[in-house]
Amino acid sequence: MKVKVISRDPAEYQRRTKGDIHKVASNLDPALHPFEAPREYQRALNAIKLDRVFAKPFVGALDGHQDGVFCFAKHPHKLSWLLSGACDGEVRLWDLTTRTCMHNATLHQGFVQGITTTPNGSHFITVGQDKTIRVAEMERTVSQAQANGGVVEEPIKILHKNFFTGVDHHQKQDMFATAGPSLDLWSMTRNEPIQTFSWGADTITSVRFNPVETNILASTADDRNICLYDVRAATPIRKVIMRMRTNAIAWNPMEAFNFVAANEDHNLYTFDMRRLDKARKVHKDHVSAVLDIDFSPTGQEFVTGAYDKSLRIFSSDDGHSREIYHTKRMQRIFCVAWSSDAKYVMSGSDEMNIRLWKANASEQLGTKSARQLASAKYADSLKERFKHHPEIRRIARNRHLPKEIYKGKQQKREMETSVKRKASNVRKTMSKKAKRSEKKFPNERDKHVMNEVE
Which residues, in sequence order, are CB contacts of 15 under 8 Å at separation 6+? Predict the structure, then answer.
């Protein structure tokens, strides 16, 4: 029997390169694929396991400071430039790409309490406990340091009668605000404040301008209040008094009315500035006071640093963190920052190091091919589809914690259980004549807010 051979064009079945893939026609009829769901579940399980296998978030450390790193400032236009201030008054300008220090100078006697940059990135401003404000030209400082072997001109020095605890620059106008015994507004061309706000007698600890509604700014104070101001008005707008002190505040860069407050009671609270009588969201997981907070440029996540020597990443809509970073040597974290490309987070801690971390612990660094991008996108969609399955949820949430944090979480859980049990017993013994509002358990979003004042 003779077999008839049909000749074909070699270009139809031969690959030109190893990267070429044959196009395969597929029928998407569900009846022809009865095992599609189990197959994709197994792929999602493998993807979530590989995420934990390749979760290596630590990128590198920047050393050189002689004291604890206390504050950060990002350059508004150069992704790799980072300013850091230390507890001994030293300010350093870093290039994160090469992990080198481009310039360093001791600008203050004592703590550098705050650093900020102008919107165009031409100058940076520092404040300290020595009652001085320093204004330096950034580009010129770097060029002079490279040309003259580190010798640069002395930055502008502004003396004031009060000490400073924080600083932030207006997003559009030539104006910056400083925190201290009062909140002062300054112009870059004057040596005296152009406007002063005061509401209460305690020290203002931090100040932040709203990046969207640029004329609104918020401050935190030692008397447990969060106060809102409008630079176009002569008086503050309103304030909310918390049960414990707020250490830092961060505005959501995509939602003009929302901000998050980092509190001494280990929690973070998301507020809507139009309604401060209750928090929109309570974020829990830290076991010690939260010291600093910074938002991602996308506004969907924020990073926090705490006294419990850990760094956590929260989704703005979730009550618990999705990630925790820690090392054996890292001590109390004073400052955190999220890079402007939303890829990395930085932390400055008490043991004089600045650490660079990946925002997504298992993300592959470097350039990725189209096939790798498509594979990663497919894996992400599978993880999102099956994220509520018990096994996948267990693997995704599991984290190995340091002993101190693990024991702290246990103690905190026992304390909260005891408080709830006591409250329940009190309500059981109430008389029948007690009001219904007295028997009602307080809402978690309400009970941490003492009062709102306008």
Answer: 22
CA distances from 94 to 20, 98, 304 (A): 43, 9, 21
**Chain centroid offset of residue 407 CA:** 25
Widest distance between CA atoms in the chain: 108
Lowest mean per-residue pLDDT among 3-7, 131-135, 171-175, 390-394: 3-7
H or E segment at 248? strand 246-251
Task: State the virtual CA torsion across 420, 313, 296, 342 in degrees, nearest 10.
Answer: -160
Sequence length of the chain is 454
Average of per-residue pLDDT values in the chain:
89
Distance CA 372, CA 366 (A): 12
Which pTM value belongs to this model? 0.87
Q: How far apart are CA 274 and CA 257, in angstroms?
A: 7
**Residue 333, strand partner residues:** 349
Burial of 200 (0-12, 13-18, 19+ CB in 10 A): middle
Whether the CB-CB separation of 228 and 239 falls below 8 Å is answered with: yes
What CA–CA distances, in Å, run from 371 to 21, 376, 381?
A: 10, 9, 15
Quick one: which of 358, 354, 329 has its CA closest to 94?
A: 354
d(CA 394, CA 325): 19
Q: How far is residue 74's CA from residue 348's CA, in Å, rounded to a whole number? A: 13
pLDDT score at 191: 86
Q: Please identify which residue in the block is written with the tokens 């502008």.
A: 156
Question: Is residue 142 within a helix (H) or strand (E), and if so which, with residue range?
Answer: helix 138-147
Enclosing H/E stretch for 290: strand 290-295
pLDDT of residue 148: 63
